[in-house]
Amino acid sequence: MKEQEIKILQAKDADLKHILFVDKAAFGSDEKANLTASLIKDHSAQPVISFLAFDNHNAVGYAIFASAKVEGWHQSDHVSILAPLAVIPEYRNSEVDKLLMEEGIKKLKQMGTEMVFVFGDPEHYKKLGFVPEAESFGFAPPPVLADQRREKWMVQALTLKGLSKNVGTLVTSEFMNKNEFWQL
User: How many domains are contained in the chain?
Assistant: First the structure.
């Protein structure tokens, strides 16, 4: 597989089947795929922006960015949360996750998004531009993650404004406030 063979496209409603295929292959569970489908349909997470990676016509990865807000920040500020990013096992050592993130960040910047948060493996997400321990910058995780390992709570500023006035708790969509969504 060569990097130039991978195409990243913004997902449409009709692409849900591709996202669920990747989910099942990446996480080995229909349960996880059902959680992802529920997130995409959650009105409180809108706008949900999804990107799919294809090798020829085969879906090999996806990234979903859901809308969120920081309690304590101005209502006009825009933040997002990456949840989830998945790549099928055969492509995990490729650049698929990086390509998905690059396209996602480009779109989020166009939309005026200030910051992106993620809860995940610090070693992996540092390579994608995230800084561990977002709480040390003044951004507490959603209450559902309060008892989790703090180094997994990460942030990436997309603008200079995203680095200023850092204080508040991330408020995610209704569906993301459920414990089962965060079981890694």
Answer: 1
